[in-house]
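Q: Hi! First time doing this. I have a protein sequence and I read that you can turn it into a structure. Is that right? Here it is:
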Amino acid sequence: MTDVQAPVRPKRKKNIMDLLVQFRWIVVIFVVLPLSFLYYFSIYLGDVRSECKSFKQRQKEHDENVKKVVKRLKERNGSKDGLVCTARKPWVAVGMRNVDYKRARHFEVDLSPFRNVLNIDTERMIAKVEPLVNMGQISRVTVPMNVSLAVVAELDDLTVGGLINGYGIEGSSHIYGLFSDTVVSYEVVLADGQVVRATKDNEYSDLFYAIPWSQGTLGLLVSAEIKLVPIKEYMKVTYKPVVGNLKEIAQAYIDSFSPRDGDQDNREKVPDFVETMVYTPTEAVCMTGRYASKEEAKKKGNVINNVGWWFKTWFYQHAQTALKKGEFVEYIPTREYYHRHTRSLYWEGKLILPFGDQWWFRFFFGWAMPPKVSLLKATQGEYIRNYYHENHVIQDMLVPLYKVGDALEWVHREMEVYPLWLCPHRLYRLPLKTMVYPEPGFELHKRQGDTKYAQMYTDVGVYYAPGPILRGEVFDGIEAVRKLESWLIENHGFQPQYAVSELTEKNFWRMFDGSLYENCRKKYKAIGTFMSVYYKSKKGKKTEKEVQEAEQEIAEVETPEVDEPED
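A: Yes, that's right. Below is the predicted 3D structure, encoded as structure tokens:
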């Protein structure tokens, strides 16, 4: 039994929305899945056409498209037109946050052509890509070359631009940090139409450090150079079951990738990939992966699991078998391992299609999975969307590694969501204080997982219907998110802004540091052209008057001082 007990809640009365959500799978089967398949196929054909062009030709087209963006920005009349937004439809975004800011009058700039891999430089180990390149596209290009982005987010649909301007993590982030930490340079179109290249050591270094987590509110990202790393053909994955209370599960997770002697930079002691799935308050499976050659994987007696086949058991359920059969090892083709959670959308697929994990559905229809998240949003309507916000949780809690046990107990007590996803990442101490930053003086404590230059954090992924909802009990999803945000602020944690947020402006800037961000907003003339990151993330419809008043208030405040580089 877990040491933490969830409160007893009264039963809730069901209504028509419960019925619509319960049978929403009909719309998914007959509308969303077919449209998703056609959409994915059309995008694939576009990617193939792009790959048939030389890098030189792609770069030429890129330069022409950048000129179009500059021209469009210069056409804007600041006194008459609304704030600048991309022309992408609100429902296209992968995140669950409402894109309400586009309901106000705005000035659209079309970035849809920016979805090409511009160059793969295996000598410099740099990939140059446009912002709408997604993870499935880039891994399809790089993996056959035995190189990969240092951090490849698990879901195929996640784009480079979203992972940079927002938040991106993967099982290798305990080595390389967040997705944005692997970027070498940004090509950005500023509010005045100037095109600049920002790196950590050129004249735009402040912009380089301010872009991550800014939600595209400092300028329009049109390309990025990203670090590549050498890889091998297979991933050797070890599945280790853990039984105990939540604090014991947390410690087992920490021990799976962090040597207790503090030798965190020793690659012999630290696996290439790490994740843990917590299935119940007393059961979890820790997974570690190491790159392996084709020759090693195909040695007699080794088990190869092609998890990418459409009929295969969903990965989270496959990993769960370790709780019954004990620790085991298998080899998974590297690209299939990268995208292991795509087909089932982690475990959200079970809610979307309750029978989607059954063998007969996987065999006959698994090739059509997953439903495209944007099409799910486009077909759900306002009332169903609000229902999900109140009765469903999709949140990530970024917390210091040593507080993972506390976070697990909090989630159990307040939400009872299972499974939970645990993935570690480094939070670097950078020359400038960015929106997210490690705890001051963390290096003095010499905690497990930390180094002198980075504090180890963990993403606690909370994705599913809460226990009270599944039992038919009362659950206030909005209040639960508010409590989650308060807990994060109190524990130096962070909430990625792809999710639904209930933060007030005051609490938003208690959670995030805005000094560098606001300094760059003024320096690069973003104020009055792009919406601020809080108002872009803020829940609910933004009126033009509200946004303009907020922008004017920011403009009148004295520019904050930016922390000087640390020694």
